[in-house]
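Model it.
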Amino acid sequence: METEQLISTASGNKTNNGTNALSDSDFLRYSRQVLLAEVGESGQAQFANAHVIVIGVGGLGNLVAQYLAAAGVGNITLVDGDKVEVSNLPRQLLFHDSDIGVNKAVAASAKLTKAYTQVRISAVAEHLTATSMQSLFKLDRQYDVLLDCSDNFETRQLVNQIAVSQNIALVSASAAHFQGQLLCIEQQYKPDSGCYHCLFPADMKVNQTCQTIGVLGPMVGTLASMQSLMTLQLLLGNKQLVGKLYRFDGKQFSWRQLIITRDESCSVCGQASHHNECVTSAGTVNLNQHEY
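Modeled.
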């Protein structure tokens, strides 16, 4: 009875041109999302037409990719050069013992493609570097959201520079010990807001990571869930989260919200920055020079 009612409702929901925005099978699959006034059939169609890229398929990216695929985000690119290790399994729930030694992006892509056949998932089995990003971020390849799920400071800086130079919305998250943070940057929409480099200059020292001080799986999962939710909000056109930093204390179960302001001396987004260049330990790369 519930199935019949849902199909009947789907048949009654028409777009302006008089055709169904979703097939009956898709309407049934995503019915709980479509019921939300903020989503509806048009929002679900936006998910299906979106293309997001996830940098890092570890504790964060592993769960983020699954949430976005399950929500019906139509195109997902996974980037990671690491292989699955036994120490990953308590946090990276897509993987099992049989995946140990397999590249994370490849393993995750295979599992998600099998589970969510309506979603196109591609794997890039290499680390994001100043060289590899030239093929990933060609001017003719458009991403709606760039998700930073990496586990090291240098990659986060590189991802931030790409987001600023390419005018891509960035959703970045990290978690270690009982602390987590989440931020959203889209300077094309909010020019006065800062970037990741404004908050954390490239020359600052970062010694504490989950590899050195540990982390609980649910702590990572909390940030991954929020990162996924923020991404879906952006795909729906909700920009109220842009330019804000959220910090979570997993011991106290408390959140803090801060406004990200631009540092005019920032070498990435400030007055003296060169938006078409990325500077890493490997040298300077011009983002407008691509290999085809």
